Amino acid sequence: MFAEEASGLLVRRERPELRYLGSTGSVDGVNLCVASPLGQSEATYWSKERGEPLEESVRQRLGWGDSLPVFLRHQSFFVRCGSSLLYRPGGYDFTSLPIDVNASEVEGGLLFTEIFQDDYFELNTMNPVLQELYTNLLKYWIAEVDIDGYRITAASHITADFSAYLSTHLRFYAAALGKENFFVVGEVNQATTPYGGSHIGRVQPGTGPATLPQKVQGTLEELCQYYSALPEQVPGFLSTYPLQEVYQLRDTCLGTGWNAMDLYQQPGAAKAVRKARDTLKAQGDMRLSMAAVEPAYCNLCLFQYRKMRDCNLCLGTSSGHGHRIPKGQTQSVCGLTKISSYFFRNSKHLRPSYVAKIAHGTSEADAKRQVKGAVSKTSKLKKQEAKMLKAKEKHEEEEEEEEEEEQQLH
Asked: Which Gene3D superfamilies does the entry link to (predicted)?
C-alpha cells in the first residue's frame, strides 16, 4: 500500500474559531515577518542553529477555539506571517520575480506565507517538536495499516530540514518493521522551487553542506546515524515527482491546448524541464526523478484516454471539449502522430494499443500490421475457444440423454 500525505504542510480552518486575532496583517508586516534581515523567518532558516525559535515580535497570534486538537494548539507550531498576497518584496509580487536572481525572496514566499488560501495556516516546519510530532503521526499509520510508502504533497512548501527529518525517520522506523524498501517521494516542483535539490537524495549540493541553511546543516548532523544505517544512505526524499511532465500529459489528454512535443519545444516548458533535470543531475542520481510507473504500452496519457474514448477527440470532428481536428486527419491522443481517420473510425477497439505502439517509436505501417495481426490472432483463439466450448456442451448434453435413457430402461 502506498499512501499520500495530503495535509502535512499546513492546517486549514474548519471552524471560524481558528483565525488570526486582531488585524490580518499588512504588506509591511508580512514583508518584515518573512524576509527581514533582522533575524525573521528566512534569516532564521539560513543563519540560526537548529532549535532556535522564530522571533515573536513580528508575528500575528492565532485564536484556536475548539478547531484543533489540543496537541496542536501552540503558537510556535505556526509561522503566522500572513497571506502570500501581502508579501511583496521590493513592491513586487514574489511569484513574478525571476528565481535565478531572487531565490531568497521567492523561497520566503513559498515557505513562510499562507500560500494557498488565507484560511490555510502555514506550519513552522523548522520547529523540532512539531517535526517529531508530525513524523510520529505518520509512523503510526505505517504500523496500523501496513503502508509501504508516502507521497508528500506540496513538499516545496516545507523547509528542507523537515523533509530530511521526515524522510529519514519514516524510513528508519519502517526498516525496524521489516520494510527495508519503504519509499518516500516528495512533490517538489524543481522548476519553480529555489534550492529544490536540498529536498532530495543526499540534500547537499556539489559545493558541500556549508552552502546549506544552518537549520539544514544541524539536522543532517543529527540524522547521520539514522540514514547511514539504511539501504539508501541519503537523508532526503528518495524521489521527486516530475510535475512538468505530469502537467503536460494531463493537459494533452484533456485536450486543453498542449501538443505532446510542446514539453520540449515550447520555451517555457522546455526551460522548466531542463531546470528540473539539471537539479537532479547535480545530485548525481537520475533515479531521483520518478518519471513514470505504468504497465508496458500504457503511459499516463493512454490511461486517461481510456476514460475519454467516447469524447470524439480522435475522430476528426469537433469534440465535446470544443477542439477541431483538420478534415481528413485525426491526431492520436498523445499528439505524437497523425493517422488516417478511416483507420480510426473503423477500428475503434484498436486505438489504445495502436497509439501505444506509435508512442514507443513504431512506424504507422508496422503498428497497423502488428495490431491487426494481434487482433487476428486473438480472433482465431476466440473462435477456437468458442468451438471447443460448443463441443463440450454438446458432449455434456449427449451424456445427459444417455443417463435419461438408462433410467427409463430401469
From this structure: Glycosidases
